[in-house]
Amino acid sequence: MSIPASCLESAYGQIETDRPAYRPLDSVTVRITGRDPADALAYVRVCDPDQAVYGEWQVPLVDNRAELTFTAGGKLGAHYLYLLWPGETRNRGKWSRYTNFEVDAQTGLDVPGADLDWIYDFCRARMRLGRRDYHTPTGRFVGYISGDTWHFDGVWLRDWIYQLPAYRFWEREMTCGLERFLERQREDGMILDGIERSGHTWRVGLESDVEYILVLGIYATWQATGDDAWLRAALDKAEKALAYVQSAPIHWDAARQLVKRQHSCDTWDYDIDGATDKGEGRHVIATCDQSGYYRAFVLMGQMHAALGSPEAAQAWQERAAGYQARANALLWDGVKYQHHVHIDPIEHAGFDERAQLAMGNTWAMTRGLADGAQARSIIDEYQRRWAATGDAYPWWSLQPGYPDQLNYWKDAYRLQGAYANGGLMPWVGGELCRAAFQNGREAFGAALLRGFGEHLRSTGGAHVWYYPDGQPGFRTTNEVNYTGWGMAEWVNALFEGLAGVEDAASLYRSVRVSPRWAALGVQQAAVCVRYAVSEGYFAYRCAGQPGGLSIQFTSSGQQAAFHVLLPAGCRPQSVRLDGQAIEWREVAVDGSAYADFNCPLRGVQQVVIE
Question: Which of 292, 315, 513, 527 gives the lowest tally of CB atoms within 10 Å of its CB?
Fold first, then answer.
């Protein structure tokens, strides 16, 4: 049988890649074979899954063959490579051959010499031990447990949502757990504290933070999924929850227009003298609650704006600004935020409660209640007290805790220096670390992060709390060394603080990029963050060079705002995007210098700062 030449591959040429799949910013090697020895030139075009072109080349052939190397990037999924020949008429002259390759992303770091890459993988593996997948009477519930709770087969909303900054990078079941909480919302708007496998629920009466935690969870879940329809339904529930807090007598101080709570150790769930009146007496206005509700109001505005409700968005932003002003006026003491301010008279004989450095100070910084100057004052106070105490880490729940001579508790784990009364809590350190990176104390942030890495390596994990000398504390038989809340905040410090990638909307459509590798003195770093439940991601590679640095980046998004920490002594003269000069400005954050500029995101791009 004679096979027509037009029915063989040799009539069309050949195009293939060296691998079937790549990560963003990987090099793709393309091999081209001509149709016959007379072919001297080929055209190659690469498109993303939406057929958007992000690379075109003329490729000379030698002995009927050629190779081309380019960088993969853009939207995740199946990318298209097209081979064209001069004068091609097939397929309306658009291509002769094509092939696909896949671009996929996973969250991770590659930082030669920094000894930090492993922290994310370590925390992910340990945190997944606390993952719970229940089939409750009303539906599936996927969540993450606390590291010490008696409800070891149930999920507290707080411990679960405070792990979201880490599990968003690997968890695919993002919404069903929140749906179980939302469907059990009380008619007046109150939100539950927790749900067990059996469907049993509970709420601790003195807690005033549950409703803002719900809002934080809704926002971060929407960021990862990009599901506007889900958000619209959840937002109605969030509105109702916040209305409840601002009307319930046990949670709202009408005179000061701020949230109140029963006298407790910062955000914890028990009164300092063990009273069990369910939050009906001895009220205070605590810093921890004010930062949470301020942040919740800001996020409500952002979510309304994303759903096309500008008037509602503006109303929530105005509410947030007013709330911030009232909270600062009441609680800021000139150096730090007070633990809380008493509404009802409470005496602590011989103890100056105003001197306490409460864990809620870290949230005040990371949630935006504090401005930059306030944040630096708080961070400096943490450094001062760490040097003065010699404690293992500056992760205090309270510093100092309430002294034992006040006879507030019978339980040994509530004595001074233990648990929420002065014990060291890893999540506090993680928030302090992220705040240090974001507020001009980058060297301190780097030292804290390295210290946490040493802690994980030497102890094998993270407990809920430690004594000031670093020994792990136990209060239940359910203590484990994979407490997710403690590790998640350090993962957040690693990716949003040091690596500096923050989602400003959802799916990394709009992203803030603040690489702070100069704080560690490293010359190269590769970073990728990706929501496991969606295709939202951002990736970059940063490299130092004489007098500046270069950043190659790609993303699924549309817009980036860069805020790049400059190496010591670097005073750049220009910023070029793909070879073209762009507008930029140098910004001082206390003693640190940053280069700030904006750019649209498309395909694979490179910025050179020099």
Answer: 315
Give the amino acid at 395.
W
pLDDT computed for residue 494 by the predictor: 98
Distance between CA atoms of residues 523 and 108, nearest Å: 18
8 Å CB contact between 174 and 224: yes
- What would the 3-class secondary structure string for 476-527 be? CCCCCCECHHHHHHHHHHHHHHHCCEEECCCCCCEEEECCCHHHCCCCEEEE
CATH topology of domain 108-498: Glycosyltransferase (1.50.10)
Cis peptide bond prior to 403, omega within 30° of 0: no
Q: What per-residue confidence (pLDDT) applies to 276?
A: 63
Share in percent of the chain as helix, strand, coil (round to 5)? 35, 25, 40
Determine whether 339 is exposed, middle or buried from the number of CB atoms within 10 Å of its CB (0-12, 13-18, 19+).
buried
Average pLDDT over residues 186-211: 93
Nearest to 154 by CA among 140, 167, 144, 139: 144
Percentage of the chain beyond pLDDT 70 is: 98
Homologous superfamily in CATH for domain 5-103: Macroglobulin (MG2) domain (2.60.40.1930)
Quote the pLDDT of residue 312.
98
pLDDT at 516 over 90: yes
Residues 525-558: tens digit of each pLDDT: 999 999 999 999 999 999 998 889 999 999 999 9
Q: Tens digit of pLDDT for each residue in 251-277?
A: 999 999 999 999 999 999 888 776 666
What is the four-CA torsion angle of 393, 399, 402, 403, rounded to 10 degrees?
70
Strand 97-103 to strand 21-22: parallel, antiparallel, or no bridges (unpaired)?
Answer: parallel
CA of 474: how far to CAs of 239, 424, 461, 478, 565, in Å?
38, 12, 15, 9, 41
| Contact residues for 382 (Cβ-Cβ < 8 A; gap 6+) | 357, 394, 432
